[in-house]
Design a protein that fits this description.
The chain has 276 residues and is an alpha/beta fold. 28% of the residues lie in helices and 18% in strands. It has a single domain, classed as Poly-gamma-glutamate hydrolase, zinc-binding motif (Aminopeptidase, 3-Layer(aba) Sandwich).
Length: 276
């Protein structure tokens, strides 16, 4: 059970922020990254927002104007830091897990629930990998604010089997992050949906165990991260339609099985979190 004193302690333990929202003493950018932070990417005059990259988010209104009642905290925010053409399929999964159909954004299922979401997307026809900013260096102001105001953060990523340490062709999801309960719920529900589930370990980019990882920048300093292999993501979309313009309207049953499993895990997590 979470009370406000616990949350205040979590705020006090959070990393201090330096210029441009970067954490003091934060880890260096990935050696493969062109940009050391989102702020540096946004400042590059050679890039045009809406052409090279885009940002999308939805934040639910919280309105607390009564001195006699209390509005609850946002429970869950779903993010895709490397969406669009960077880690294909993660934008569509982010929207679906948040409760919106990726083609048209209709609430799906209609009865909800819906969650806050944020994503950064590569919009180029090619070479989107150059827009990748490692998750420990994600300093987008909206992303930081949304995650920092949420009890749970779930980050969706894509990886190769080589990066995950798996055999070629493996269709698997690796579960990481600093929240052990959230990880456990995700693993149980994904396994129940007949998906291959692996505990993420080793490389921070896969394991998501740094406190500076954007998935762990929630109110409680913990969160969860899912890394889906390229083969698993490809199997979620109609063959020949696994492209950024086409994916949203060409999802297959596996896409929705994954989405339902993750949403069920989120529901279990939130049920354990009454805020006093």
């Amino acid at each position: 059970m979470i009370n406000r004193r616990t949350l205040i302690a979590a705020f006090a333990a959070a990393p201090a922020l330096g210029t441009l929202g970067a954490a003091v003493g934060s880890t260096p950018a990935s050696a493969a990254d062109v940009y050391p932070s989102n702020a540096a990417l946004y400042a590059d005059p050679a890039l045009v927002e809406g052409v090279d990259y885009g940002r999308r988010y939805r934040r639910h209104l919280i309105d607390d104007q009564s001195p006699r009642s209390r509005t609850p905290f946002v429970r869950t925010t779903v993010i895709a830091p490397h969406g669009g053409g960077i880690e294909g399929g993660t934008s569509e999964l982010c929207l679906a897990v948040a409760g919106y159909h990726p083609a048209g954004l209709a609430p799906t299922p209609p009865a909800g629930p819906t969650y806050d979401f944020w994503m950064f997307e590569g919009l180029r026809s090619a070479d989107n990998g150059g827009l990748h900013v490692t998750s420990t260096r994600c300093d987008d102001g909206v992303a930081r604010a949304m995650c920092g105001g949420s009890l749970n953060v779930l980050a969706l990523h894509g990886c190769t089997t080589a990066k995950a340490g798996l055999e070629p062709g493996a269709r698997a999801v690796l579960v990481g992050g600093l929240d052990p309960a959230f990880r456990q719920y995700l693993m149980e529900e994904l396994a129940a949906a007949d998906l291959r589930v692996v505990t993420a370990s080793g490389d921070e980019e896969i394991a998501g165990v740094s406190p500076e990882n954007i998935c762990n920048r929630g109110l409680l300093g913990t969160g969860a991260q899912l890394e889906l292999t390229a083969e698993l993501r490809a199997a979620m979309f109609t063959p020949g339609k696994n492209t950024r313009p086409d994916r949203a309207a060409n999802t297959l049953p596996l896409f929705w099985s994954f989405t339902t499993a993750v949403r069920t895990a989120i529901g279990r997590m939130e049920a354990d979190q009454p805020v006093l």
